[in-house]
Amino acid sequence: MLKHFCLFLVLTCPLAAFAEAETKVPSHPESLIAAESITKMITGLLLVLAVIVVAAWLLKRFGNVRTSATGHIKVVAAASIGQRERVVIVEIGDTRLVLGVAPGHINTLHRMPAPPQATGQTAGKSGEQFSKVLDNRISQTDIQTRDCG
Length: 149
Description:
- This protein is about 50% helix and about 20% strand.
- By secondary structure, it is an alpha+beta fold.
- The protein has a domain at about 65-115.
- The longest helix has about 30 residues, at about 30-60.
- The radius of gyration is 34 Å and the shape is elongated.
- About 0% of the residues are buried.
- Belongs to the FliO/MopB family.
């Protein structure tokens, strides 16, 4: 314990103070400019720290990054209902589970069938239809420009 105290004392004492043999008397008083610049520096530091704290809080509060489905489990939606409690809708295969998630435990609140995946098929069909319509319009435009030219 004594070794640690001595090491702490040696590391915290300014060694430059022991090196000087005579003390210097300042010829003029310290400038107010130095105090102003130190005040500005401390204010800027506190402002940066406040921005960091606010950004961290915002990310913690609203930073729910949605990821795509991995394997058979997909998180459809999540909502915070407390500091550490959340309600999460998880899709597993053709079943959706509403889960209550808290530190240390997860409870199933409700179980329901997943809606049919017609939206993905419809989007694919509508994309194909759009592609066909676009090709037809481009070919009609090419024919009209050839006739005019």
